[in-house]
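Figure 2 data, in text form.
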Amino acid sequence: MTAFQQMVAEMVDYYLANGGADVTRAEIRNLAPIFSFKNDWPQAYRWAMARVDAFEKAERRRAEERELQRMDNMMKTMMKPDLSDDNICRCLERLMKEEWKPGERLFNKQTHWQAVFRIMSDAGLFADDDFDGFDSWVKRTIPSELRRLYSKQSVKNISQTLFCKPFRQWKYDSTLMKKRDPFDRMKRIAERFEQLLNERG
């Protein structure tokens, strides 16, 4: 690159940084009458315009990426569950009215609170072993009629079961559970609780 071309390159970079592509194009065209007598001006001009085009293309790509990121963040926000105490209580109330079989409540054992704890733990509300924190939250937040089956010890026993793993990792293991039905039922409770938390409107 000649000294003249280097000068043009520095001018282009300056205008791109401070004015953008349109301003730079206008400035380059304004330079044409001034430098037309130089033999290397045509080459410098083509290089400068190509650099502006590349800059503009990169700016468009960055703008598209920013828009995609904005849309992604918006979708994540829309899909984020409502983990307020009021909504959790509403979801539990709905959950405890659902049926497993005709005439038989889905949520009808102390151990079923393990599914509630698991989903709330997966959501980051409680650590995997924060049974004291969960117990305090239940007694402070959940109406007595909804926690009549609740037992802290029963929830604590989750650490001795396959339900101690994150919900997405639950898989039936016949060596740990002789019957399949209790597993399917617990999985259904956790699944429905999560679905209810994610519902909007």
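Caption note: The chain is about 65% helix and 0% strand.
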